[in-house]
Amino acid sequence: MLNFLPKALVGTIASFLLLVNVLFWFTPLLSLACIKLVLPFEVVRKLIDPILIKIAEAWVYCNNGWMTLTQKTEWDVEGIDTLNYKGWYLVNSNHQSWVDIFVLQYHLTGTIPLLKFFLKQELIRVPFMGLCWWALDFPFMKRYSKEYLEKHPEMKGKDLETTREACEKFALIPTSVMNFLEGTRFTPAKHQKQGSPYQHLLKPKAGGIAFAISAMGEKFNSLLDVTIVYPEGIPTFWDFLSGNVHKIVMRVEEKPIPHEFTQGDYNGDPDFRAAFQAWVQQQWEEKDQLITDLKSKHEH
Questions:
Q1: Residue 119: pLDDT above 80?
Q2: Residue-by-residue DSSP string for 159-214
Q3: pTM above 0.85, yes or no
């Protein structure tokens, strides 16, 4: 609607509305979370968590509102019509930009339960947002280098323990557990440094979702495999705010989670780990080919 304005002005308006939305929802969200912190009982959590979820969804809907006001994006989305708002889902997506999060929330909020993202520990320091993510029980993962683990072997597996603890909380009410398997945003430099065998993806890190599946048992209805493509090239967040992202393609495929993966020991059983990694690699090969096909389709 406002996309006819100069791009710098559109970006400024969108940034202002984004900030106002954060500040507006911050206080009620944090207030309720503090009650949950002071009274850490399951009965309190069952009362407060649904309210926190509704506040977070209202926050997302307001984001969708300013996006509609400032953007003029052509959406090509398939695969969300049969999803269940009252189900439990493990959601995976390729990761290229901060824009991915807004794309996922725009189309999946209200269609499936609120997305709970795995976040790097450092993000808890982000002003306002870090506390909001904490209030909503987003799991913060602290990754350690091989060198650090060699000096501090007692920290090995600590991040996966965090995954298990977070997922145990998610089992109380319908939840969508969101994980970017690549662990970081795709860039050509990271792709080259990794020597990734995939054309459009970084190597997947299977440990996080393996422990999520183990912790949730058979609670998950299915895996939602999401693929996001930007036909004009990967956008920066400012590109998005200023209305320079004209087309976004998203495909969602619902896949079963093999029963045997709900009961194995990813850390302690080499055969199980090899089987799980092979399953993940198969998903990644299919996703890489899908991205190639979608890019080819939208180039013409």
A1: no
A2: HHHHHHHHHHHHTTS--EEEE-TTSS---HHHHHHHT-SSSS-PPP--HHHHHHHH
A3: yes
